[in-house]
Amino acid sequence: AVAAAMRLGAVLSALRPALPLLLGLSLGCSLSLLRASWSHGAAEERCLAPGPPVPPARGAPPEAAEGRPGPGHEDFRPRIVPYYRDPNKPYKKVLRTRYIQTELGFHERLFVAVLTSKATLNTLAVAVNKTVAHHFPRLLYFTGLRSAKVPHGMVLVAHGDERPIWLMYETMNYIHQHFGSDYDWFYIMQDDTYAQAEQVKALVTHLSINQDVYLGRAEEFIGGDEQARYCHGGFGYLLSRSLLLKLHPHLDSCRNEILSVRPDEWLGRCIIDFLGITCVSQLQGQHYHTYELAKNTEPEKEEEEDFQAALAVHPVSDMTLMYRLHKQFSRIQLDRVYQEIQDLQMQIRNLTALTPAGEAGVTWPVGINAPFLPKSRFEVISWDYFTEQHLFSCPDGSPKCELSGASKADVSEIIESAVEQLNRLYQPLLRFSKRQLLNGYRRFDPTRGMEYTLDLLLEAATQKGHSHVLAKRVSLVRPLSKVEIIPMPYVTEATRVQLVLPLTVQDLDFVANFLDMFAMNTLDTHDNALLTLLFIYHPYDAQRVSQVDVFAGVKAMVGELEKRYAEVKIPWISVKTEVPSQVKLMDIVSKKHPVDTLFFLASVWTEINMEFLNRCRMNTISNWQVFFPVHFQEFNPALVYRGEQTASSNTDFLRDGHFDRHSFAEACFYNSDYMTARTKLAADILDRDEVLESMEVFDVFLHYSGLHLFRAVEPGLVQKYTLRSCNPRLSEELYHRCVLSNLEGLASRSHLAMALFEQEQANST
Predict the structure, then answer these.
(1) What segment(s) does the record annotate as region Disordered (predicted)?
(2) What's the pLDDT tens digit per position in 309-348?
(3) pTM for the structure as a whole
(4) CB neighbourhood size of 50 (10 A)
(5) What is the CATH number of the domain that holds 234?
(6) What is the helix (H) or strand (E) element at residue 454, kind and residue range?
(7) 111-124 per-position pLDDT tens digit
(8) Residues 474 and 615 in one domain
């Protein structure tokens, strides 16, 4: 017994450290089993008295009574919509919108309407347009009567009647009809109002668009209800889209039933009577701050908090006061931004000191990305050397050129900024003045901006009048600012593309492949694209065309395509010339097509595909932009692979080649834009047609149009390697560009080096 007791004690002593764990596991399992039994009982047993089942409430669906979500929850239940196409109906290609914003029905954020008059259109309205108009995404001016000449850069809507109530009524109707479905917020202001555009835009970003909003400076009606308020028109007011849609059916009734002298009171009474919504000065935690100017106010001396926080200031009596207000509020906003930058930099320094890198991890300038670190010598960003007069890295490749234009202004500004920063740092002990720029270096770092290193010869003056000349090196950064989306005219993918293919005798071997790709990628897919062939005959071949037509085989292939596709017609134009100038050829084609034709000037080595044609449509905008793609040129397979099998992977189709920046043969542009530029060119060269032989279509648009020239690499245009024939009768520049294109298209440097190495080894053996 004693031995058994000793063994039990030894076992318990061994298990004593594990007893808390065993007890915890046991207790946890017991509680989990107990809870499961409760949950099971609650799911199966109903706490109802015996009897018939209780019917659902009136109007409630059966599934709601059974505990399943009703129709109010349908938006949260995923549904699979099956696709069904009627086999009896012909197939029709579905055109999807290019932008998801269009398909989902997104709205622009803010529309601004400025109420003006014939008397103030050329004064106060112009001041509004010059100060804040460019800060708003869309702004229109509304007046009763207009003057004979509308100020430049202003979109004006004239209603034909100067009565204030009629002007307000017609303005609200016009906004609803033309912009009611495009914008979420509508800001109405007068031309004697100064509005802080950035503050107004920030206000609407913090308001919910699901509410009916009537926000402004709330004023009491004269002799009216104490609870009702209208928004004072002089300080501007904000309307939501939902309120505008509800108000529009009642505008006619308001015009006939409500009598008022002031248009803002009339609109406020209309909204209150028919919608029951009164004007408020604060909503959803946002305040609409205003400030009323007194007579003979000096904006530069205004230090009140109400003035600095105001979104709108009224009344503004003249243009000069409007400009002074804009200058003062811009200074206030700039001071706030600088103070915010300093606070953020201080926070960055404090937080960086707590990181493993410590204070050494703080980049310069504080808050700007660190400089780009290249991973190989090919990624090193080179510095450009400059002085105050010359630049030693020129766009045309020359070693030295005069510093002018934007580059000269950039250098002057950066030197002034450097001296100013030095004086701010060392004053009042020292005062610096520039003697000379000894050396200047700059480079563009895509991760942070433009970097500068300046060696300045400075004269430093002390407070006692002593001066000393010294050289000092400074570094500066012009950081990349906030990315701005440039508004562009709307274009679609439904535009018809007219392909123009010039052909010479040297191109006959490649025409069959071009026509096959055109038929497969456009005709078989029913793409909205047409083709016109341009046969370029040498004078000798043109004389013998009745006996031997060098393009007879091409015409036969065109005839076969027209037989295969009965609805397709491929016209051709015959031209006789010794020098096939691109501009002269385009002149002939342009006269035979409507002005709204979208041309794609192709080459015989181009492989047409739908992806590129869509980009041609999207990147070419009438009276705005032309598109010159840079095609991808494959290298010579004999040098790249040297008898090995060609790579066939789809992911490597852009590997063995380069984008040919010397070629301008492909272009997308509208006929109307070409005709406009060509007219200016004709007036410049008069009757000197020989000048056209040294020009391409790109030169015409570059020098004789104000359009945007969009030139970008185009992976959708892939051309097989071929040795192009360069016409020596063309200009020296065009011939040199053609030769360079052939040479750079042979192979990469590594492939050429390997080919030379193998050749030397073969010669040595």
Answers:
(1) 49-79
(2) 999 999 999 999 999 999 999 999 999 999 999 999 999 9
(3) 0.59
(4) 4
(5) 3.90.550.50
(6) strand 449-462
(7) 999 999 999 999 99
(8) no
